[in-house]
Amino acid sequence: MAKEMMKGNTAIAEAAIRAGLDAYFGYPITPQTELLEWMSVRMPELGRAFVQAESELGAINMVYGAACTGKRVMTSSSSPGISLMMEGLSYIAGTEVPMVLVNVMRGGPGLGNIAPAQADYNQIVHGGGHGDMHPIVLAPASVQEAIDLTVLAFDLAEKYRAIVVVLIDGSLGQMMEPGELPPMAPLKTAIPDWAVRGGDDGKRRTLSSIYLNPPDEEVTNLRLERRWQEVQANEVRYKEYYLEDARYVVTGFGSAGRIALSAVRAARAEGIPVGLLRPISLNPFPRQVIADLSERVEGFLVTEMNAGQMLDDVMAAVAGRKPVEFYGRMGGVVPFPDEILGEIKRMVNGQVPMSGHPRDRWLERMPRAN
Amino acid sequence: MDTAQHELEQVVYQRPESLMEVDTHYCPGCTHGVAHRLVAEVLDEMQVRQRTIGVASVGCSVFAYNYFNTDFVQAPHGRAPAMATGIKRCLPDRIVFTYQGDGDMASIGMGEVVAAAARGENITVVFINNANYGMTGGQMAPTTLPGQKTTSSPNGRDVETQGFPMQAAELLATLEGTSYSVRRSLHDPKNVRMAKKALRTAFEVQARGMGFSIVELLSVCPTNWGMTPLQSLKWLEEAMIPFYPIGDYKVNPALAGLRF
Ligand SMILES: Cc1ncc(C[n+]2csc(CCOP(=O)(O)OP(=O)(O)O)c2C)c(N)n1
Ligand code: SF4
Questions:
Q1: Do residues B251 and B172 touch, judged by C-beta distance below 8 A?
Q2: What is the pLDDT of residues A299-308, one digit of tens each?
Q3: Is the complex ipTM higher than 0.85?
């Protein structure tokens, strides 16, 4: 199939359709809305289920019900809408039914704004609802990667009976870029044995997230944790750029990683031995890769469009072996490659202390309003 | 003589196949059990047990999935109509119903049920109105009557500060997508029979693809009302029915000619 110009949001929607999406439920919110709009045309046209829900609460619970039938289902939203979905996500995790969620992050907290941000890393990677639960989180940095990861998301969701989140920020959702869509996959016909179907095969099935007896709940939690170990062993994804001979590592995900790549290229052009590690799976996090790098490089620069959320995971992986610096922009402000290049130079010029916290040092460098 | 007697024997009462052969956790005298039985009888009569998916809610009936001999899922508090929507849209030829209490449907889940009704979602809602939150120990519900004492309205519901009760069957009847919205009561045999007929109609509405159907069932909660089962049936009749009249609030005219 040939490459065509596509907006991130519509590319993801069409990729999901071609991956065999049976049902989509969603609610309008900028900067995600084109995804819902695309679905509203394409899904009925293909005879598949589409409902514009009354709210994100409605949408996520429609997804929950649909997922219980074993169909391929998804929803999408942006930050405030994702907050409303937390209850449903937890129930879905507890019931162990697969689903895909696309989260197109915007500036917050609160109503915030509709500009791109990455401030919901913790909400999704370390949260995602009450109880011990671990969604798989994939963070593309281009329209093509968004297409590929959306397709992968459905396979992973079904393989692990898990929630898979495709996490992007508004700029990737809105960006026009060439991308190649996969061919249309046939709809799944096999019904998983756990799915409710009305007992037409003579079996009775129930699905719930209730384990009233604490030891049963513990057994369930242990099962989920062991499954998560399996995910951690098999599903770590990341991309390396110029790392072979790098003495410094920049790391960032999604758009921040992409902007950092421009900065890293510019630094390389000036002869600075710096490389980029761009985590693609934020959960499971490429902890070991960072730990290994920390044995051979001299320092890390973490760059995000938030106040240093992935930073905490990087620091845990580096475990004090090497200095870590942080540079972030927030509230919908997107950093320029030059800003990151400046940070790279500052780091390389040897001004990174091992004491104190990188977030405190970053705040010290950021301008004060008054 | 044995043979003759045998010939005269007739089964008048047995467990519907759509009910599991288990004891329920409901309190003595609670009408949740009656409502379960009526739904199960209707599913049996319509021979849809093996294509039905129920959606349990959060409340005393949270374990309904253990009692109905059909496929079942269990929804977050108030969200059963949304879950039912997801199921029905994926499996349109199945019978999908929710079973919800008044806290669940008329308070935390009012948004979901109104939206499902407005969409004309082809599902059936069995709505149990017992004028309080049973499971959490008898707090005020949106259906609690003015002056009614509950653990969170200890001096009686004061409409000045705690608002007025909600009449769900009437409210949902105003929506175009609703094909059938009625209220029945479970306080005596005659009313129980009427309730069963209404449930049958509601499920027939769904089987015919006519859109949203709901049966509100006035129900008792002797435990939290602090009454004996008999007293509570009397209280239902004397205190609840005047505020919650039994009646048909919306009946799709297309139902008129139907016989079942
Ligand atoms: C989000 C959420 N909030 C609160 C609760 C606690 N809770 C459990 S059951 C219930 C009330 C149920 O009452 P009702 O729907 O009237 O059903 P009944 O128990 O009377 O049959 C509440 C508030 C919960 N489980 N989830
Ligand atoms: S608490 Fe009330 S509603 Fe719940 S089972 Fe007991 S009597 Fe029935």
A1: no
A2: 999 999 999 9
A3: yes
pLDDT of residue B1: 47
* More confident call, A159 vs A355: A159
Class of the CATH-defined domain A4-234? alpha beta
What are the Cα distances from residue B73, in Å, to A135, A220, B117? 21, 17, 20
Instruction: Name B73's bridge partners.
Output: A207, B55
The arithmetic mean of pLDDT across residues A325-332, rounded, is: 96
Tokens matching residue B22:
């288990």
| Assigned fold of B21-255 | Rossmann fold (3.40.50)
- Which residues of A are less than 8 Å from B111 in CB distance? 54-55, 57-58
- Mean pLDDT, to the nearest integer, of A346-359? 85
> Looking at the partner chain, which of A65, A197, A200 has a beta carbon nearest the beta carbon of B83?
A65
| B contacts of A26 (beta carbons < 8 Å) | none
| DSSP per-residue codes, B65-131 | HHHBSSEEEE-STT-HHHHHHHHHHH-TTSEEEEEEEHHIIIIITHHHHHHHHHTT-S-EEEEEE-S
Q: How many CB pairs under 8 A join A and B?
A: 133
- B240 alpha carbon – ligand 1 mean position (Å): 21
On the 0-12 / 13-18 / 19+ scale of CB atoms within 10 A, A167 is buried
- A275 burial (CB, 10 Å; 0-12 / 13-18 / 19+) is buried
Rounded Cα–Cα distance for residues B53 and B75 (Å): 12
Q: Which residue ranges in chain B fall short of pLDDT 70?
A: 1-6
Radius of gyration of chain B (CA): 18
- Alpha-carbon gap, residue A8 to A173, rounded angstroms: 4
pLDDT tens profile A231-272: 999 999 999 999 999 999 999 999 999 999 999 999 999 999
With tokens 């998301």, the residue in question is: A153
Whether A239-365 and A4-234 are alike in CATH topology: the answer is yes
Average pLDDT, chain A: 96
Minimal CA separation from B72 to chain A, in Å: 5
Give the pair of three-digit tokens for residue B7: 């010939």
| Residue A253, φ and ψ in degrees, nearest 5 | -115, 160
Q: What is chain A's alpha carbon radius of gyration, rounded to the nearest angstrom?
A: 21
Nearest to residue A249, comparing CAs of A344, A112, A115?
A344
Closest CA to B138 of B149, B148, B156, B150: B150
For residue A23, give the chain B residue with the closest CA.
B90
Encode B194-223: b = buried (16+ Cβ within 10 Å), e = exposed. Answer: bbbbbbbbbbbbbbeebbbbbbbbbbbbbb
Please report how many Cα atoms fall inside a 13 Å half-sphere around the Cα of residue B196, on the Cβ side: 18
Alpha carbon A366 to chain centroid distance?
27
CATH class name, domain A239-365: alpha beta
DSSP for A184-199 reads: PPPPP-PPPTTS---S
Q: What is the residue extent of each domain of chain A?
A: 4-234, 239-365
C-alpha–C-alpha distance, residues B233 and B236, integer Å: 5
The proportion of chain A whose per-residue pLDDT surpasses 70, expressed as a percent, equals 99
Indicate which residue's Cα is closest to atom 6 of ligand 2.
Answer: B27
